[in-house]
Design goal:
The chain contains 10 helices and 13 strands. With 301 residues, it is of the alpha/beta class. The protein has a domain at 2-155 and 188-215 and 271-286: NAD(P)-binding Rossmann-like Domain (Rossmann fold), CATH 3.40.50.
């Protein structure tokens, strides 16, 4: 298939592009700056083009000769607001709507869309509310064959999760941790990529949504400890009271690239775990964190 992958220059896109290329698909990845996706240029069936996916006319041109669209766009910091900040609105709601409308205009039907586990209009965070609104915006456009994926936190080589915690423990004598008892069911990026690639030509996935989770549930404290052990730099972990964690998150919002915001804290009020169904679709067995993480954390990420 010829596939347009929006948001493909990031962590998930890197792994998904490789999986799709290995299966013989041709992938086009638009980006505003081509150098951000230079790591994809080594893949023989992947092309990177400079373009603006927020421009509906450009989107329509990008969809010419394509057979499917994959939307991977997601941000963790999108500002504060009701029901969500302006950044979340632009990335998680307006862009999916533009993609769906451009597909309807061009007659392109197949869409894979990454949302988030526990996304809901009534969720405590703007991130989760905006992800739910993005799903609704797509569903409001008729004539598309859509499959939605809702992953838990994703780990793997190049991630910004376990790798971040490992790096912090190389530098800090202790780790002050907000929401230490928050629950996650981390899923390997290779399983995410394979599940999405598997769904491309399965008609039974049209109109369906799938949770993507790993085999085990961990607290955030346990995950940080794992990252320290596997990287060889385990440090004491100090769980922060809610009021202190809130102040820490507020202060970090003024630091570019900081790993925490008040909205992140609100997201962690919900257990980021499977609702009880299979952890992965199509009978795929999820890879355990302990099997994968040592290989890249010991190398420094």
């Amino acid at each position: 298939m010829n596939i347009l992958m929006i948001g493909g220059s990031g962590f998930i896109g890197r792994h998904l592009a490789q999986t799709l290329a290995e299966r013989g698909h041709s992938v086009t990845v638009p980006t505003r700056r081509r150098e951000r996706a230079r790591h994809l240029l080594v893949l023989p069936t992947v092309s990177v083009v400079e373009d603006d996916v927020h421009d509906p006319r450009r989107l329509q041109k990008l969809m010419a000769d394509q057979q499917a669209v994959i939307n991977l766009v997601g941000i963790l910091r999108g500002g504060n607001g009701t029901p969500y900040g302006a950044g979340f609105s632009r990335a998680h709601v307006e862009l999916p709507r533009k993609i769906a409308l451009a597909m309807q205009t061009t007659g392109l039907r197949r869409l894979l869309h990454i949302s988030a586990l526990r996304a809901a209009a009534t969720a405590p965070s703007g991130y989760l509310r905006s992800k739910a609104a993005g799903e609704a915006a797509i569903a409001a456009v008729r004539g598309l064959d859509v499959t939605v994926f809702r992953p838990s936190v994703i780990f793997g080589a190049g991630d910004a999760f376990l790798t971040l915690f490992a790096r912090l423990q190389r530098c800090l004598p202790i780790v002050p941790l907000a929401c230490a008892e928050a629950q996650f069911q981390p899923v390997w990026v290779g399983d995410v990529a394979a599940s999405m690639a598997d769904s491309l030509q399965r008609d039974e996935t049209f109109g369906k949504s799938y949770e993507l989770c790993g085999p085990e549930v961990y607290t955030l404290r346990q995950l940080v400890a794992q990252a320290g052990v596997l990287s060889g730099h385990r440090r004491p972990i100090v769980g922060l009271p809610h009021a202190v964690a809130y102040l820490q998150a507020w202060a970090m919002e003024f630091v570019p690239g900081a790993p925490l915001s008040r909205d992140n804290l609100r997201s962690m009020q919900l257990a980021n775990i499977s609702s009880g169904g299979p952890a992965l679709p199509f009978g795929r067995q999820p890879m355990a964190l302990e099997t994968v993480a040592p290989g890249y954390l010991k190398r420094g990420g």
